[in-house]
Amino acid sequence: MKLTTDYYQGNTEFFNDMVKNIKNNPVAIKQIYEGFKSFDWKKYVPSGNFQDELYKPVTESMIKSQNMNMDKIV
Predict the structure, then answer these.
(1) What's residue 31's pLDDT?
(2) Beta carbons within 8 Å of 28's beta carbon, 6+ residues apart
(3) Cα dihedral sign, 37-43-49-55
(4) pLDDT tops 80 at residue 27
(5) HEC states along 36-50?
(6) DSSP letter, residue 4
(7) Residue 48 contacts by C-beta under 8 Å, 6 or more apart in sequence?
(8) Whole-angstrom Cα distance, residue 36 to residue 64?
(9) Domain limits, the chain
(10) Which residues of 29-56 are buried (b: 16+ CB within 10 A; e: fewer)?
(11) How confident is the model at residue 28 (pLDDT cuts 50, 70, 90)?
């Protein structure tokens, strides 16, 4: 079962750029951290329960996983 995309597979330019400009860049890491700190998650999941069916998006991966785990007799 595959849950990720191959879009960047083998794209060494993309990954080298990511390492240089994000992973090895303390300013970028701090900006990402500050962004997460100030992200208003309650706007998207007001109950605070991230497993609440009301707020869980239905994705293609989720549907595939559910189908693969379905009782084989059904």
Answers:
(1) 95
(2) 21, 22
(3) negative
(4) yes
(5) HHHCCHHHCCCCCCC
(6) S
(7) 42
(8) 30
(9) 14-68
(10) eeeeeeeeeeeeeeeeeeeeeeeeeeee
(11) very high
Q: pLDDT value at position 66?
A: 86
3-state helix, strand, coil in the chain (%, to 5): 50, 0, 50
Q: Helix or strand or coil: residue 23?
A: helix
CA distance 41 to 38: 9
> Token pair 């991966």 is at which residue?
61
More confident residue, 62 or 74: 62
For 22, 23, 46, 48, the CA distances from 38, given in Å and listed in that order, are 19, 21, 15, 16
- 56 has a pLDDT exceeding 90: no
